[in-house]
Amino acid sequence: MYIRRATRLLTATLACACASALALPVASAAPAPPAPSPTAGPHAFAPAPYTTNPTAAVRRDAEADAKKALAAHGRVAHRSGSDAFTVRNLVVDRDGSASVRFDRTYKGLPAYGGDVVVHLKSDGSYESLTSAAEAAPALSTTPWLAASRAAKLSEKAFDGSADTVSTPHLAVQLDGTASALVWETVVSGVRADQTPSRLHVLVDAHSGKVLRTRDEVSTFAPAGRAAQARTSGATATDSAAPAPSAAATAVTGRSIYSGQVSLDATQSGSGYSLQDPSHGNGYTTNLNHATNGTGSLFTSSTGTFGNGSPSDPASAGADAHYGAAMTYDYFKTAHGRSGIFGDGRGVPSRTHYGNAYVNAFWDGSQMTYGDGQGNQRPLVELDVAGHEMAHGVSGALTGWDETGETGGMNEGTSDIFGTLVEFYADNPVDKPDYTMGELINISGNNQPLRWMNQPSLDGSSPDCWNSNNGGLDPHYSMGPLNHWFFLAAVGSGNHGYGNSPTCNNSTVTGIGNDKAGKIWFKALATYANSRENYHQARIDSLKAAADLYGAHCTEYNTIEAAWAAVSVTGADPVPGTCGSQPGSPSVTNPGNQTTAVGTAVSLQIQASDPGGSTLTYSASGLPAGLSVNASTGRITGTPTTAGTSSVTVTAKNTAGATGTAAFTWTVNDDGNPPGGCGDLPAWSATTPYAPGDRVAYNGHTYTSQWYSTGAEPGAPGSWAVWTDGGAC
Fold this sequence. Notes:
Helix content is about 25%, strand content about 25%. The chain is of the alpha+beta class.
């Protein structure tokens, strides 16, 4: 239905991603950590076999098919007669299959926790459906609690100084099998540590109980860990948001943490500004210690920004600008996503927020960085930038908040992608590793803020999951997810990035950053729901591993082993055995063969490649006298020796990926194959035939006119496939 368009789209997307990677101003390679070392740099990340940015035509078809499927399978979605659904986002795989995510409303009210994902086959037909809700909502939308009372309760729930309280509006919260009518109020203000806040408070419209809160602002460090920003609440002197620029100019950034880097900027006359046309016109500004406003766009008359130290405000600007570009390129190359927002737009980055503000935050539309202790350690390190902007990606895909286990996975996801941005950049000064914020000295003890190999080293994060995990601050409850990713990517033991013990004393061998990162991204984009917990994340990541690399293949088994190693276990969600891996050629098994000594053989092996690549063929175990044509895949020859052989045929594409089929081949010495006709083999319903193949069936000889499997010679309509040569 839309598979061909999807294939063309993805080919174009991959080509663009590769071109983007080649054009990056990457520094010389860093010295390798102790072996074995994960590969780093853009070349270490393969183009994604999926995209969240399909063409308009592909998107239209996928959405239409998903809406039909949702209408036909409403019971699986726990759909009530008062529900309506709107598309939130979708992801399309290389083979044209798609997953379309819907948000729900109930009687016209937002229904939080009611999201649904419809999974479509490559031809657009329904495959499956998953729902965050476990029961259809059925409740009155008449509140008992007055809106004014809900507003006061919401303001009371705000931890900080509230500036504004919105007018409450009604919504529905779905949580498992329960549903509740709620008042939703947005309280805007400043937290105790001077982080801005836009807190969504859901108050039960009957009991007045606060059921859930969600802040639009996500920080790098947990509450209370960072020192307060001493500020008067000043507003920056803003420069107007820069107009889009047509072409990028390479300039030099002398950053604090990444050394001297090449930056994409805009030239106007003899001056330069940190606006990046190569990355969606993202731009970087200086708040000059204010806490409001856009700030002033960094400019230079020489084409050099910063002096490598905090003494020049542009040094932090260079770090922030570099981090935004690397994050954009990582997601584009490794995951086929066009920018943080998914629409090609770049990210505005504000530096020098507040006074001695020891944190950084993402507020849903822009990045903001404080200057750290004494205004001498700006939080603009590369993994901090990647962490915070990854909130924009995961938030858009899943709608995760910071509550319970969902919050921990939200923060852990940002650590995962922040780390992968660091490996993508492969900066020789800020060398890639599996610690977070190791250069900014956020705690004043010259230690990182977090360790992925052993999260408990921070004194608060658990290495292993337990039932109390959801009660922790999300910056600590992320521990098991960070640990899982390290084990999946690198493995247990000491690989040069610190020892990583397992919770079950097992040994895990990692599959590498790129594969582990793709599995986690696909788990989010294709399967995760807005109320995700650790055990559901295990299921979703295993499904993603099966989609990308095959069920129960090495990658799948490693993901499972890594989850078990952090005490997250459960039933196998994808039964089966390891076969050909997605993205590799698929070989149709011809079935077991029987021929005779001295009888000529001609068997066409049928294989296909998902990317349309040219295939070459090989075979092992063929009976003596037979061989396979490497170009056509046809097995020919005359058997010389009786016996039964175990044959494996292999098709390989130009990228080196392979698919196989195994069968037995029996050679009899009586000169007449069972069911045959002279020197002709008997027709088999499981054997694929090509034009020119000859068989015997029901005492007649037949010659194939077309490609077929299971088309019975002599049956009504078989004239289009077989020509009857008459009786034997």
